[in-house]
Design goal:
This protein is an alpha/beta fold. The chain is 47% helix and 13% strand. It is built from 17 helices and 13 strands.
Amino acid sequence: MVIKKNRLLLKAKLIKDGIKKMKKNIKLIIIFAIAVCLFTGCKDSKTTEYSDSTTPATRTITDMADRTVEIPTNINSVATIGSTARMLTYASCADRIVGLSELEISSNPIMPYAYVNSEMFSKLTPVASGGANSETYDEALAMLHPDVIFINYSDINAVNTLQQKLNIPVVVLEYTGIFSESVYDALRLTGDIMGTTEQCTKLITAMKEWQRDLNDRTKDIPDTDKPSVYAGAINFRGAHGIEGTYANYPPFDAINAKNVVDETGEDGALIVEKEKLLVWNPDVIFLTPSNMNLVNDDYRINPNYYSSLKAFKDSNVYTQINYNYFGTNIELSIVDAYYAGTIIYPNAFSDIDFEAKADEIFMEMLGHQYIQVLNNSGNGFGKITLGK
């Protein structure tokens, strides 16, 4: 009986120890499972099921060509055709671009959005050639199969054909000017699609404040107190010498400048007769530094022409950075407006530290300071001396 009792006690002890060990192992398994979930971000099946059932896979938007487009609710990858990668940069979502135009892969300093993203862009797949007669690479787009393609073509038939052919949503972004509702609408649409509405709203607020500031500083200055101004050597459909100019030049319009070209009644880029510039004889001339080779070549042939212009005689010739390169680089045009303001109206802009203001604008729109890049590349702001 004693032996049997001892055996029973031993058996009970073994069972008790086994239960303790099992409980300990179960506890370790639970702890391990919790750790795995915390590390991997796993969710319980009920939460996943609820999320899937309440979040639609797609939604419908209206693009800037007034087209109704069904897009995925969550956008992880996009391709950009034309210069739409610029707007994606402003909207702080360029990191989701998987394909773009070849022209944007080159790190040209007068295309700031491409330059600041050059390390990332250089590794991406070209999906179009870029430029005036851009060719779209359908096979590359099909291979990448992004969630959305952004495009700025005005040929709606071509846009619809591309969407039908690839079975990928194509969204048109169309805008003009620098401080315009179309620019703000493009930012709003991009932010809505990409989930960066907060950044885009913040940027729109900043742009409207710069617009207000530029206008308020200059709107009450009488025309009689304003020097006459001219912007030359401007790029449009190629490079031009001093005769390449702009009527209703946006940086001048932003500061209510007296642009001599406006009297032509034209709007936008144009070539003027050089003799007409002699008649206007503006007080201040701004020239694009990247085209100074053309101006200097002409100066060597016709030195008397340039010495006849008041602005050259009085050393009132300054740089104005070309902002139209593969579309409008809006941040450059705003910086151009501030620089022109400091030159044309020194008293009204006396409290402005130009380079600090420029980098404020670049940081807000590009996420990077940029004035030093322009200076280092020979595209900085300052006084121009002919022949150099």
